[in-house]
Amino acid sequence: MHMHHGIYITLPDRKVQMYDRDFDTYLQSFAVFRSRCEEWIGDSDLRIAVENTDGFRGYEQKAIEFLLESPKFGLTWDIGHSKATREQDVPFIRSHQDRLIHFHIHDGTETPPRNHLALGDGEIDLKERLRLAEKRNARCVLETKTVAALKKSVQWLRDNPDFQRNSCADS
After folding, report:
1. Where are the coiled-coil regions (predicted)?
2. Around 12, how many Cα atoms within 13 Å sit in the side-chain half-sphere?
3. DSSP H stretches of helix in the chain
C-alpha cells in the first residue's frame, strides 16, 4: 500500500499540505480504514504492507504508526526507493523493523536518484539489506523493470551463496 501525500495549497510564503493541516480528520479516516480492514481480514493471516515510495511525510509516519498498532498491518521496505530518496525513510523503517514483512529488492543510486536497477548496478549494501530480510523472515520481490535486469539480479543472487537459501532467493 502506498501513502498518498494529498493536495497542498500554495501560499505566498509556503506550501501547506492539507493532510498535515487537517491531521485529526486525516487520522480519523485511517481509524475507519483500519477498523474495516481488521473486520474484512478477520481471522485470516492476510496482512497489508505499507511501502515506502518517495519519502514519508511526518503526518504519514503518524498514520502508519497508527496502522501498525494492528497486527493486520506491516511494512514493505523498497530498498531502491530508499536509496533514490537519500535513505530518508531508513530511520523510520528501522525503528519499526519488527513490523517488516515484505521487501522490494532492486539496486539504486542517490545521485542521480535511480532505482529498479539490477542487483550490483547501484550503491545499496545489498547483503546487509538481504540479511535483515532473512532475519525478519520477510518475503521479497525482485523488482526490476527489464528482463535483462532480472536475469542479472538472479545471477547476482546465485553468485552470492549466502542468499541462495533465504526467503529472498526463493521468492
Report:
1. none
2. 0
3. 18-21, 23-41, 58-68, 79-84, 90-95, 126-135, 147-159, 167-170
| CA 17 to chain CA centroid, nearest Å | 22
Element of type H or E holding 76: strand 73-78
Answer whether 81's CB lies under 8 Å from 110's CB.
Answer: no
What integer pLDDT is reported at residue 120 of this predicted model? 96
- Residue 169 CA to residue 151 CA, distance in Å, equals 13
The three cell numbers of residue 76 are 514493505
Task: Give the residue extent of every domain in the chain.
Answer: 8-170
Tens digits of per-residue pLDDT, 85-105?
Answer: 999 999 999 999 999 999 999
Question: What's the rounded Cα separation, in Å, for the pair 78 and 82?
Answer: 6
Distance CA(7)–CA(101), nearest Å, equals: 29
How far apart are the C-alpha atoms of 161 and 151, rounded to whole Å?
16
> What is the phi/psi pair of residue 109, to 5°?
-135, 155
Point out which residues pair with 75 in neighbouring strands.
50, 100
Homologous superfamily in CATH for domain 8-170? Divalent-metal-dependent TIM barrel enzymes (3.20.20.150)
CB distance 111 to 83 below 8 Å: no
**Which pTM value belongs to this model?**
0.90
